[in-house]
Amino acid sequence: MQNVRIAVVGTGANGASMGADMVRAGLDVTFIEQWPAHVEAMRERGLTVHLPDGTSENTSVAVLHFCQVAEIRGTFDIVFISVKTYDTRWVTELVKPLLHDSSVVVGLQNGMTIDDVADIVGPHRTIGAVLGIAANMFNPGVVIRQVSRAGTWLTVGTLDGASTPMLENVVEALGHAGRISISRDIRSSKWMKLLANIPEMLPSALMNVPLLTAANTEGMRPVMDAMSREAYRTAIDLGITMVPVLGKTAADVPDSDQYAIDLLDTILESYSLPDTRVAVLQDWDKGRRAELDAFSGYVVSKQRELGTTAPVNEAILRLSERVERGELAPSPDNAALMIEALTASSRPG
C-alpha cells in the first residue's frame, strides 16, 4: 500500500484502536478528532490501547482537530469515518474537499449510514463496513479493547457489489485490525449487524449495566428477543437477504427469525466481556446524546413507512427518549418498564 494516504475521522474506541493497528503496520494514517482533550492526550502521550490479554500498546499518531481540516493540503485515498450516525452527513461534507476522483469513504459505523455517505460523495466512492469488535474509552488517549485482533471480524463491500482496486486497498488496511471478508451485498450485511445491535443497545443502556448483566436479568431476554424478531420482520418486509456475518457460514443462517436470536447469542458469547458497556450507555455516561436513530429508531421509522408498527422497539425507544430529555434516569429498575412493554404488546387490541 505504498503512497496510499489514509484518514480516520472520529477516533473513539473503535476508530482509534483500528487506526492504531494501521499505523503500527506502517501505513500513512492521519487521525482527525473532535474531542479536544483526546487530541491533546494523543499528541502528548500517544494512543494507549489495553488489549484483552492484559498487555498494552502505545502508538505515536499524527492527529488533527476537526477545526484544522481546512488546513490540510492534498487529498486522502481512503477516509474511514467512525463518528456517531447522527454526525455522518456533516462529517462527510467536511471531508469531501479532501477526496480525489477515486478516493473512497468507508463508514466504520453501526447503523445504515451508507446512503448518507453515497448521497454526498457518490455511490462509486462509498464503501460500507460491518464491525465485529468491542472497545471502551473512558479517558482521553486510552482505549480498552475487549476483542483481540484475532477475534475481531470485519466485512466490507461496495454498494453495487463490484470488486475495485480501492476496495482491495481497504481490505488490506483493515486486515491489520482483524479478520476481514468482502460482501457482495453490503446493505444486507449491515442489516445483519443491525439485527444483532437492536436488542443489545437500548435495553442494557436503560438499565445502566453491562450487556451481559442486562441479558441475564430475569425477564429481560424475552424483551430483547422480541425486539430482534420485530427487526427481522422489518428486514424481510424491506426485501433484505439474510446473509452470514460475524464469522457465521451460510449453513448457520436458518430461514426464520431464529437467525436474529442467533446473532444476539453470538454478540453475547463472542463479543462481550462482563464489563462491556454498549455504545449508547458510554454516550450517556459522558453526558452525550446517543444514536437512538440508528437502532430501534431506525426499525420504528421503517415500519412506519411500511404502514405497520414495531411495538416493543417503539416502547423501548420512547423510554430512551425520556432519558435523553432528563425525565428518566438509567437504572436497573427500568427493567420492569421494559418487561411491561413486552406484556402490553401481546395484549389483544
UniProtKB/TrEMBL annotation:
SUPFAM superfamilies: 6-phosphogluconate dehydrogenase C-terminal domain-like, NAD(P)-binding Rossmann-fold domains. Pfam families: ApbA, ApbA_C. Residues 6-147 form the Ketopantoate reductase N-terminal domain. Gene3D superfamilies: N-(1-d-carboxylethyl)-l-norvaline Dehydrogenase, domain 2, NAD(P)-binding Rossmann-like Domain. GO terms for cellular component: cytoplasm. Signal peptide: none annotated. Residues 185-322 form the Ketopantoate reductase C-terminal domain. PANTHER family: 2-DEHYDROPANTOATE 2-REDUCTASE (PTHR21708:SF26), PROBABLE 2-DEHYDROPANTOATE 2-REDUCTASE (PTHR21708). This is 2-dehydropantoate 2-reductase. The lineage of its organism: Bacteria, Bacillati, Actinomycetota, Actinomycetes, Micrococcales.
